[in-house]
């Protein structure tokens, strides 16, 4: 079965991905009391080169510890871990979905099976999607316990909304990588192409005047902090007319990549 084979190929990488996320989560939350005390005494913010970095610094040293902690979680669990480890995992999982079949000379066998091309794509995608998103929800749920250990609280509905948005972003990266994996025949070429695009997007994000054109503008601290603070309800996440609607744009981007992959697969030859 295609889905079972895909899951077996990804399961150990997914476990490693989960452990890395958790390994990054635990210390930054448990050390929060010491970090917060150091932040209150620090004047580093005036020396930071980027405007967004100064905003983050000021946000995590708020005089209200509860607000500062939520901002810290927005930085560490979402802006850092999701955008680094999560994106890397999505690219890793998507890179081999079809390019690996070509390299292993099994792509012809895959296409010759009595199953619709759309079904092949679906059975490739959903195990990869679960491996990409489930660890994110598990680790962010564990943040509730670690927060309790340092006598802090996180609002469960807002944490769920932020995690949902992060998961949609990772699904977009996965779908994009899958499309490139079908277009190119070598996994290394897929990783290089998608990696180059993401590096370019990071460069755009770090350039103040053109940051609005970066994909990472949709998943930065200035987006996650209001969500965790309860200032961005679900309707604003989904409504691209009356609000930002960033989640909807990411969903549409994911759907577009899936449709492009399906179209490419329909006309694919070994």
Q: How are the secondary structure elements laid out?
A:
Blueprint: H1 2-30, H2 32-41, H3 51-60, H4 65-103, H5 107-112, H6 117-149, H7 156-183, H8 187-205, H9 221-229, H10 234-238, H11 246-266
Largest sheet: none
What is the N-to-C order of secondary-structure elements (H for helix, E for strand)? HHHHHHHHHHH
Q: Structural class, from secondary structure content?
A: mainly alpha
Shape: elongated
Question: What Rg is obtained from the alpha carbons, in whole angstroms?
Answer: 20 Å
Number of helices: 11
In whole angstroms, the N-to-C terminal distance is 20 Å
What would the keywords be for this entry?
single chain; 270 residues; mainly alpha; 11 helices; 77% helix; 0% strand; elongated
Description of the structure:
It is a single chain. With 270 residues, this protein is mostly helical. The chain has eleven helices and no strands. It has helices spanning 2-30, 32-41, 51-60, 65-103, 107-112, 117-149, 156-183, 187-205, 221-229, 234-238, 246-266. The longest helix has 39 residues, at 65-103. The mean pLDDT is 91.
Give a concise summary.
Helix 4 packs parallel to helix 7 (156-183) and helix 6 packs antiparallel against helix 7. The protein starts with a helix and ends with a helix.
């Amino acid at each position: 079965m295609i889905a079972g084979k895909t899951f077996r190929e990804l399961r150990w990488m997914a476990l490693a991905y989960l452990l890395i996320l958790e390994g990054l989560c635990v210390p930054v939350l448990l050390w929060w009391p010491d970090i917060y005390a150091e932040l209150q005494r620090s004047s580093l913010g005036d020396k930071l080169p980027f405007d967004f970095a100064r905003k983050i610094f000021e946000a995590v040293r708020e005089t209200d510890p509860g607000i500062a902690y939520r901002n810290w979680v927005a930085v560490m669990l979402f802006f850092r871990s999701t955008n680094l480890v999560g994106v890397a995992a999505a690219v890793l999982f998507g890179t081999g979905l079809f390019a690996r079949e070509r390299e292993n000379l099994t792509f012809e066998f895959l296409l010759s099976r009595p199953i619709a091309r759309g079904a092949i794509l679906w059975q490739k995608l959903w195990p990869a999607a679960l491996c990409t998103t489930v660890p994110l929800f598990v680790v962010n749920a564990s943040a509730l316990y670690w927060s309790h250990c340092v006598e802090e609280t996180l609002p469960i509905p807002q944490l769920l909304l932020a995690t949902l948005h992060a998961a949609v972003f990772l699904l977009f990266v996965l779908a994009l990588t899958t499309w490139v994996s079908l277009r190119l025949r070598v996994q290394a070429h897929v990783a290089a192409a998608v990696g180059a695009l993401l590096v370019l997007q990071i460069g755009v994000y770090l350039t103040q005047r053109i940051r609005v054109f970066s994909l990472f503008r949709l998943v930065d601290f200035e987006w996650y902090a209001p969500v965790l603070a309860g200032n961005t309800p679900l309707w604003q996440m989904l409504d691209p007319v009356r609000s930002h609607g960033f989640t909807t744009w990411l969903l549409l981007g994911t759907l577009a990549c899936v449709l492009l992959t399906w179209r490419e697969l329909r006309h694919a030859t070994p």
